[in-house]
Design goal:
mainly alpha, 219 residues, two-stranded antiparallel ribbon, 2 strands, 9 helices
């Protein structure tokens, strides 16, 4: 009579909140143990605003977003830096994978190229509303797909809506403070970025806080 070998059980480490699956993403483990801090998360998210003006420099070097190739290149560069800054926060909070970075770069590249082309590379208030909405939609779509695992489909959809609405707001703020948007930047500047991170950070905290609680691992 043959016996079927049993699979060795995975080690489980203990915490004050109970056993923790070693395969559990670090962000989930943090929320599970009750260490999620809305204030800290929001504060770290505010620092991601520094990536916006830096991310816009490559497009300036290319002579501005004046055609599709330069829009794609400028959007990809800005999205890469912004995505990297955001990922450094999200990996701590939700255990988000590094795929966030290239997905953000591709999303902003496509969104900026589509938005800029749609308005004939114009930079007046109405143009920036349309271009900004399509840019936010582009970067937000890919990010929302990655967020589904951490916050669920409904909350990920809220993030998509937030990026689509808040991106043009960032552009309008930048234009209102007198920045020469006629230079066809790939992304709004420091003032618009400050408004963006303040508002989007509040949305992010609300989405994550709604998911805080015990996380059980399927066996």
């Amino acid at each position: 009579m043959s016996t079927t070998p049993t699979r060795p059980e995975r080690p489980v480490r203990a915490t004050r909140s109970g056993p923790v699956d070693p395969d559990e993403p670090p962000g989930r483990a943090a929320r599970r143990s009750g260490s999620f801090s809305p204030a800290r998360t929001w504060g770290l998210w505010l620092l991601t605003g520094l990536a916006f003006p830096v991310g816009g420099l490559p497009a300036i070097a290319l002579g501005g977003v004046a055609d599709v190739p330069r829009a794609l290149a400028g959007g990809a560069a800005a999205g890469l830096l912004i995505g990297a800054a955001q990922w450094l926060v999200l990996r701590r909070v939700l255990g988000t994978g590094v795929a966030w970075v290239p997905v953000s770069a591709a999303g902003l590249a496509l969104g900026l190229a589509a938005g800029s082309w749609a308005v004939g590379y114009g930079t007046d208030a109405a143009d920036l509303l349309i271009q900004g909405a399509l840019s936010g939609l582009g970067i937000g779509a890919g990010q929302a797909l990655l967020l589904r695992r951490g916050v669920g489909f409904a909350r990920a959809a809220i993030w998509l809506g937030a990026t689509t609405v808040l991106w043009p707001i960032g552009w309008q703020v930048t234009r209102a403070v007198g920045v020469s948007v006629e230079d066809q930047f790939s992304v709004f500047g420091a003032t618009g970025a400050l408004v963006w991170v303040l508002l989007s950070g509040a949305v992010l905290v609300a989405l994550v806080r709604g998911r805080v609680g015990p996380v059980t691992s399927a066996r």
